């Protein structure tokens, strides 16, 4: 997950390959609550691992529910309809799929509970659900503003003889919450059939269908009379199905279906494969497939997979009632930018009470890209952008995962402009590794951005480059470590570090069994992170790096490190040989005295004795050898920016290089 202030997406041309999406958020949190409310043990496969499910899991544990996780398998020991903890404070973040159903279930069970969330949750209305529960005889008080969380829940005096009215035109989660909670009351010996009557039009009906489907899996068969009346039969009782599998998330699939529709044709015509979700999914957002096809996408599928290819181009404009796909409809708003005329998305008033006011947010961010957008009380009209009309934009995400994922689709723009996604970590709500998954499948349209940090030994280029990579969310290439590894491997194979052994050492370098894991380096299955950081290893690296065959052997390996979203590479010839076309090259220098002092501090901190005079002499000798070698001598690239950091802190050096990089961006 990219826990950084912003993430820059280079322009993309296609997504190809195979992706397996995380489990459905809507199914995951419903299944967790149902498993907790019934008797017995339930094993859940492929549960979504995200902020929302973690919030629900923590709440269930706080209530006394036994939950264990082993890889993709979660086991829940049910509470049997009565939580052991009758008093608890539950923090539910911004998870509506946890706040609404837990409010209803705990209000029916009764106890002393306080439910709260982040500030945005306290702005999301819950009054219609509270009114319905109060009509049922539940005790609920507002601990803050009337009609909004936080809530205080007490002991109920249930009145089950009359139908329970609930509004359906604000959020279907209110009805879902009642449907999940009322079997707890229907199981009581004296309980009659319990009826819920929907007041007004019920929006987001497919989400209610998910609820009804899962209730049936847990032994409760709800009678539905159209979309206005739902009856929980007397004597209904939750029973564990034993095992249950969570489908891949259909809302998350919408971004990859859209990307497949935007992907330029290539030699591989197989298309983009999406595993774990089929056309017969119980999730309402699978209907996004119909909308994508209407816009011209080619989508095929079976019981547990989809295949997507570009079809009509440009895409066809649509005028669509999106009541059935409120979350996935956001993806259509971005696809509309690539259409052949204006598109209108209707019946999306529910966007305004989601993680943010999505109607206002989407209109604002699409305009940043250059679009003309009309925002209505319950509709959005988007005019497409032709080539030459797109603008590079910093897209604000409003702490809303779907705004971030939708925004990424703008990277397919025909003007080959990058897109900046602010606060990319907000995708953790439902899809923590969304961007990593996107980059694994994506083909860049204009090359991968590379920043080169060159300079002499002990100038601090490695520290600066690694910090720069973390700041931008880029990959990091430590070329010095590669040469140190080659030197170490050569020593272990009994090869002398001499010209006569250059070809043998190069052959060894080409087949180097190395892998990098975070800050650790492994050679042939052995952690050699410390072994390659010694002074002797550094001297060996300087020796083998002078051999032209070794440098040639490692050249392809180093260039292959340029992967999305970008690369920061440190090393002596990064800007001159390995990445001569890099858009930013920095040649980092410092006085020999300053470099010797830094190296002295490093060695002393590791308990290694060294003298300043000896270190300085070694550095100056190595500089002279590196500058005079025939293969890739130490020198700045002609277009490199010099940075003397003799008197600078690492933070000051980092700020300067970031400023240079920002100056090259179009935002």
Task: Give the topology.
Blueprint: E1 6-9, E2 12-15, E3 17-20, H1 25-37, E4 41-45, H2 51-62, E5 66-70, E6 73-77, E7 87-91, H3 96-109, E8 112-116, H4 127-136, E9 140-142, E10 151-153, E11 164-167, H5 172-181, H6 183-186, E12 194-199, H7 205-217, E13 223-225, E14 229-232, E15 243-245, H8 250-262, E16 272-275, H9 288-295, E17 298-301, E18 305-309, E19 319-321, H10 329-335, E20 343-346, H11 358-368, E21 373-375, E22 379-382, E23 393-395, H12 401-408, E24 419-422, H13 434-441, E25 442-444, E26 450-454, H14 461-472, E27 475-478, H15 479-492, H16 502-510, E28 514-517, E29 520-523, E30 526-527, H17 535-544, H18 548-559, E31 567-570, H19 574-578, E32 584-589, H20 592-605, H21 612-628, E33 641-644, H22 650-663
Helix pairs in contact: 1-2, 1-3, 1-7, 3-5, 4-5, 5-7, 10-12, 14-22, 15-17, 16-18, 20-21
């Amino acid at each position: 997950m990219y826990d950084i202030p912003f993430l820059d997406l280079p322009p993309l041309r296609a997504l190809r390959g195979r992706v397996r999406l995380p489990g459905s958020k809507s199914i995951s949190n419903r299944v967790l609550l149902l498993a907790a409310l019934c008797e017995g043990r339930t094993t859940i496969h492929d549960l979504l691992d995200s902020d929302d499910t973690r919030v629900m899991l923590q709440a269930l544990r706080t209530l006394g529910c036994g939950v264990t996780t082993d890889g993709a398998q979660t086991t829940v020991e049910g509470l049997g309809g009565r939580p052991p903890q009758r008093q608890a404070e539950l923090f539910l973040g911004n998870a509506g799929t946890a706040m609404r159903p837990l409010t209803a279930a705990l209000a029916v069970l009764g106890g002393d509970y306080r439910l709260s969330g982040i500030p945005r949750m306290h702005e999301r209305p819950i009054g219609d659900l509270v009114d319905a529960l109060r009509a049922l005889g539940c005790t609920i008080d507002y601990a803050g503003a009337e009609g909004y969380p936080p809530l205080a829940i007490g002991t109920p005096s249930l009145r089950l003889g009359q139908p329970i009215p609930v509004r359906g035109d604000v959020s279907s989660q209110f009805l879902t919450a009642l449907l999940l909670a009322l079997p707890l009351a229907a199981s009581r010996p004296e309980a009659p059939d319990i009826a819920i009557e929907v007041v007004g039009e019920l929006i987001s009906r497919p989400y209610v269908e998910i609820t009804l489907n899962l209730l049936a899996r847990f032994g409760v068969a709800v009678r539905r009379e159209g979309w206005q009346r739902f009856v929980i039969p007397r004597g209904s009782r939750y029973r564990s199905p034993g095992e249950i599998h969570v489908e891949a998330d259909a809302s998350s699939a919408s971004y990859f279906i859209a990307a497949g529709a935007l992907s330029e044709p290539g030699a591989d015509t197989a298309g983009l494969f999406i595993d774990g979700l089929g056309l017969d999914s119980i999730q309402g957002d699978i209907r996004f497939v119909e909308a994508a096809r209407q816009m011209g996408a080619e989508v095929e599928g079976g019981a547990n997979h989809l295949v997507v290819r570009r079809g009509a181009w440009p895409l066809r404009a649509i005028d669509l009632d999106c009541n059935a796909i409120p979350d996935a409809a956001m993806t259509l708003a971005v696809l509309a930018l690539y259409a052949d005329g204006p598109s209108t998305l209707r019946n999306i008033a529910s966007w305004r009470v989601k993680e943010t006011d999505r109607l206002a947010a989407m209109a604002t961010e699409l305009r940043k890209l250059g679009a003309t957008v009309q925002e209505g009380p319950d509709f959005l009209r988007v005019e497409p952008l032709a080539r030459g009309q797109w603008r590079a934009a910093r897209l604000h995400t409003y702490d809303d995962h779907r705004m971030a994922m939708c925004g990424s689709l703008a990277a397919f723009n025909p003007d080959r402009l990058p897109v900046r996604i602010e606060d990319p970590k907000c995708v953790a709500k439902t899809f923590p590794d969304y961007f990593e998954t996107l980059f694994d499948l994506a083909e860049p349209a204009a090359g991968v951005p590379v920043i080169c940090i060159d300079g002499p030994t002990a100038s601090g280029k490695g520290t600066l480059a690694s910090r720069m990579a973390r700041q931008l969310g880029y990959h990091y290439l430590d070329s010095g470590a590669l040469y140190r590894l080659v030197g170490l491997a050569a020593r272990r194979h009994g090869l002398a570090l001499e010209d006569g052994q250059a070809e043998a050492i190069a052959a060894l370098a080409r087949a180097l069994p190395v892998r990098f894991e975070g800050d650790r380096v492994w050679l042939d299955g052995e952690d050699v992170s410390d072994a390659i950081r010694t002074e002797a290893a550094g001297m060996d690296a300087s020796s083998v790096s002078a051999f032209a065959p070794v440098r040639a052997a490692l050249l392809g390996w180093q260039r292959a490190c340029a992967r999305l979203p970008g690369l920061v590479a440190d090393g002596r010839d990064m800007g001159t040989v390995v990445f001569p076309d890099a858009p930013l090259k920095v040649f980092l220098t410092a006085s020999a005295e300053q470099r010797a002092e830094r190296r002295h501090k490093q060695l002393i901190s590791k308990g290694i004795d060294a003298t300043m005079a000896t270190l300085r002499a070694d550095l100056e000798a190595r500089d002279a050898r590196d500058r005079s070698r025939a293969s890739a001598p130490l020198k700045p690239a002609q277009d490199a920016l010099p940075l003397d950091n003799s008197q600078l802190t690492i933070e000051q050096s980092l700020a300067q290089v970031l400023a240079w990089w920002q100056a090259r961006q179009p935002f």
